[in-house]
Write a sequence for this structure.
């Protein structure tokens, strides 16, 4: 199973960076099953405000989030052990709190690959591969 970090979903709608927008769209067209972490949904709504100057208003953002959920086979919801797992990952891998939560949610949810341009991707964190789709890969 795969996860797209918030930035990838944002680029899908951001016409100001056509190269990254195309890469995000291409990635979505070739990926297998997707999971949508709860955190990504929350971050997407918050981050989509930066798209307001190009006409991506609040209603459009909420509709895009609904589409993201439809494209995903599962929404990864927070579970009680998430904080402890994030704490351990943060200490072992020098992650920020929010990045550790994301990685922990992916690992606990059985995700194999997290596509992101953050967290030092490309790299491996325990069972999770972090891939930067803007550096190399099928859409570069």
């Amino acid at each position: 199973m795969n996860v797209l970090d918030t930035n990838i979903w944002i680029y899908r709608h951001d016409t100001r960076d056509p190269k990254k927008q195309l890469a995000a769209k291409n990635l979505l067209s070739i990926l297998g099953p997707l999971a949508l972490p709860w955190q990504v949904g929350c971050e997407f709504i918050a981050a989509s405000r930066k798209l307001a100057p190009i006409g991506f208003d609040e209603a459009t953002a909420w509709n895009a989030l609904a589409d993201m959920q439809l494209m995903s086979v599962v929404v990864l919801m927070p579970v009680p052990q998430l904080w402890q797992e994030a704490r351990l990952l943060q200490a072992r891998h020098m992650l920020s709190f929010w990045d550790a939560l994301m990685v922990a949610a992916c690992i606990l949810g059985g995700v194999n690959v997290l596509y992101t341009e953050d967290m030092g991707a490309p790299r491996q964190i325990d069972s999770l591969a972090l891939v930067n789709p803007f550096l190399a890969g099928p859409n570069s």
In short: The longest strand covers residues 34-37. The chain has a mean pLDDT of 94. Strands lie at 2-4, 34-37, 74-76, 113-115, 123-125, 128-131.
